[in-house]
From TrEMBL:
Belongs to the ComF/GntX family. This is ComF family protein. It comes from Microbacterium salsuginis. Pfam families: Pribosyltran (PF00156). PANTHER family: DNA UTILIZATION PROTEIN YHGH. The lineage of its organism: Bacteria, Bacillati, Actinomycetota, Actinomycetes, Micrococcales. Signal peptide: none annotated. Residues 167-221 form the Phosphoribosyltransferase domain. It comes from the Bacteria.
Length: 232
């Protein structure tokens, strides 16, 4: 309740400032519009599946958008520039990915934890905000048990080592779970979340993100059959 009120207040302030300050499209910098029509179309969901891990520990990650071009710029504007109103434009991508993963009926949607430093810098948690705009109730069953470094400058192995053993899950035993995050890159962070949930007794159905960084090994990143294209 307090989080919802805080978010509503922040959104009202942002809208008030928009009346006083110049605004530009988050996707292409066109003036006097938050998102132009072309960039809105560029955010049309196209769910894709990626398999993280191998063997019995592997799990699917469904993402609504590719993290490139307009979607990448819009997500960065939300995460780094405080443009919280953009969460509503990204919500359809999250909903489409959830539908492609089988929907939320009978599952607990668990949001990825945000570090205190990131929350203090932004004043909001990005995955939570987008999920609320998507009309999805999330559960904070995960928490970080130690500080981790910024992942952006680390390679694949460095990311894995950085987050290894950094999360713990509570109240997860017996639950069927979908993990929600904003962007998946190498999958190291979401893999650690899945490990923590499984160790706590949860059955992880899938992970879902708004967007995924494209990979050169494209087989698992190719568009899925037409049945999944209907989620656009």
């Amino acid at each position: 309740m307090i989080a919802d009120l805080s978010d509503a207040f922040r959104q009202a302030c942002a809208e008030a400032l928009a009346l006083l300050l110049p605004v530009a499209c988050a996707g292409c910098d066109e003036s006097d519009v938050v998102l132009c029509e072309r960039c809105v179309l560029a955010l049309s969901p196209e769910p894709r599946r990626r398999l993280i891990g191998a063997g019995e520990t592997s799990f699917p990650v469904w993402s609504g958008l590719r993290f490139e071009a307009v979607p990448a710029r819009v997500i960065r504007a939300l995460k780094e520039d405080g443009r919280t109103g953009l969460a509503r434009a990204l919500a359809p991508a999250l909903r489409a990915a959830l539908e492609a993963a089988g929907g939320v009926s009978g599952v607990t949607v668990v949001v990825m934890p945000t570090s205190w430093a990131s929350f203090r810098r932004r004043g909001y948690r990005v995955p939570d905000l987008i999920a609320r705009r998507a009309g999805v109730r999330v559960h904070p069953l995960l928490r970080q048990t130690r500080r981790v470094h910024d992942q952006r400058r680390l390679d694949r192995d460095g990311r894995r080592r950085n987050v290894e053993g950094s999360m713990r899950a509570t109240d997860a035993a017996g639950r069927r779970v979908i993990v929600v995050d904003d962007v998946v890159t190498t999958g190291a962070s979401v893999a650690e979340a899945v490990r923590a949930l499984r160790d706590a007794g949860a059955e992880v159905v899938a992970a879902v993100t708004v967007a995924a960084t494209p990979r050169r090994a494209a087989r698992t990143d190719e568009p899925q059959p037409a049945a999944f294209q209907t989620h656009r």
